[in-house]
Task: structure prediction
Amino acid sequence: MRFRLSLAALTLPAVGLLVLLQAAPLQSPLSESEASLAIAVRYPARELARSHEGGAGATATALMSVGPSLLGTSESRLRAAGVLAGCLSLGLVVRLGERLFSTATGVLAAVILLSTATGRTLLGTEFTVEPFFVVAMLAAVGGIRNLARDRRSAIRSGIAGGTAIALVGASALWIPAMTLVWLRRLYGLTLRSFGVVVSTTAATAAALAAVSAAVLGVSFEGVVPMVATTALSKEALLSGGIELLPVLPPVLLGLWSAPAQQRAQGSPRFLSMWLAFAAATAWWTGAVAALWIAVCMWAAVFATWALGGASRRSVLASLGLSALLAIGLDAGLPEDDASEVHDRWAVRETGKFLRRNLESDSTIAAAPGARGRLAYYATRPIEPLERTEVLDGFDYVVLDRAVLASAESSRSDRPPPRELEVDGHALRVLAEFGPWVLARVGGSDEGVTVPAPEKPSGPPAAGVKSAYLHD
Result:
C-alpha cells in the first residue's frame, strides 16, 4: 500500500511538539492519575507496584517503560515518549481528515486538540497510555475507512485494533466491532473477512501481551486490563466540553450556512458511526479519548463548512466571538491551576521527606488523594486511609490540613499545634508541606529525624508558605 502525505501532515507534528514544549507543564510533579502507571513502570515486578494497581496491563507498562529506561525517571523524561506519540497522532489526525473530508478539516481538528487542555492531555502532557492508544486508534480508523478501496486494510485495522486492546483492554473493543459493521455496510462481510478481522485482532493483542509480560518478568495473568486507568473520564468530559465553547460560533455558522450538497460531501456517515461507537464506549467503560477525538473531528467539519459556505463578514464575526469566548474562559482558570500546581509540589516534597527521614520498616497511611504520588516519591508502600477513626496499626499518617483544622475547630490556613487529638488518637505533627501534614500516631518522635528546612526542588504557588518543620 502506498501512502501519500501532504505538507500539513508532515509539518503539524513538528509544530505540535513546539507548542507542547512551550505550553504544557511537562516538568511538573505527577498527578494522582499518573502515579499508578509511574510506579508500575519504575517497579514492574516489586510489591510496591502490586500494592498500587492502576489497571495498566503489561503492554502499556512495557511501552511506557521505554522512555524512562533510555532517558531517566524525572517527570519531563517520563512524559517524553508520550509527547512524541502525541505529535505523531497530530499527523494521523490531519491524514484522517484528508481521507474523510479535506486537508482543512484535518488541520482544524489538530488545532482544536492543541488549543484545549483536554486535547493536550491526549497528546502526552500527562503520563498515561492514552497518547499511544490514540495513535493505534487513528491507524485503525484510517484502515477501516480504506476498506472500500482495499480489503487488505482489514489486516491493518486488525493489527492496530489488537494493539489498542492490548493497551487499554475493553475500551478498544469498539474498533473490531466497527470494522465488522463497516464491512457489512460495504457488503464485504463474509465468513472469511470476519475470521481475518477477529483472528488478526486477537493474535496481535495476545502476542503483545505475552512479549510484554516476558520482558517485564511478570506473570501472564491479567496482562490485558479489562479497562485501563486513564487521565480522562466521563466526569472530565463536562469540563472538556466547556473548553470547546470558543469553537461553537463557527460550528453553528457551518450548520446554518452550509448548502445541502456540501453536507453530503466527504464521509459524514462514517464519522457518525465512529462517534456512535465512541459514545457507547464512553458510556460503558468511562474512557472518553475516542469520543473526544471524534467530537473534535466533527467540530472541524462544521468549521470547514462555515469557511466554505458563509460570507466573509459572518466568518469574521464568528471568529471574533470565538476569540472573546476564549479570552473569557482563560481569565477564569489561573486560580484553579495555581492551586493544583501547589498541591503537586507539596505531595512531591512530602514523599521525598518520607523517603529520607523515616525508618524503612515503619507503616505509613495517607489520604486517597495523595497515596499513589507519595508511594512513588517515597519509594515505599503507603497504606490507604479512608477514615481518621481507623489509625491503629500505623506509625505515621499524612492528612489534609483541612481535616486537622476541622478536628481542632481552627482555621485551615494556620499551622496546627504540635500535639493534637483526632478521633481519639493522639498525633504529633512533624512536618507540613502546603495542605499536607505528616504526623506520628501516638505522639512520639521515636524513629524520625527531622532535618533543618531545605530549599524545595520546585517553586510553590505564589503567596503560599511552602513548608513547616517542627523540631
Q: What stands out?
A: Residues 338-469 form one domain. Residues 145 and 270 are 7 Å apart (CA to CA).
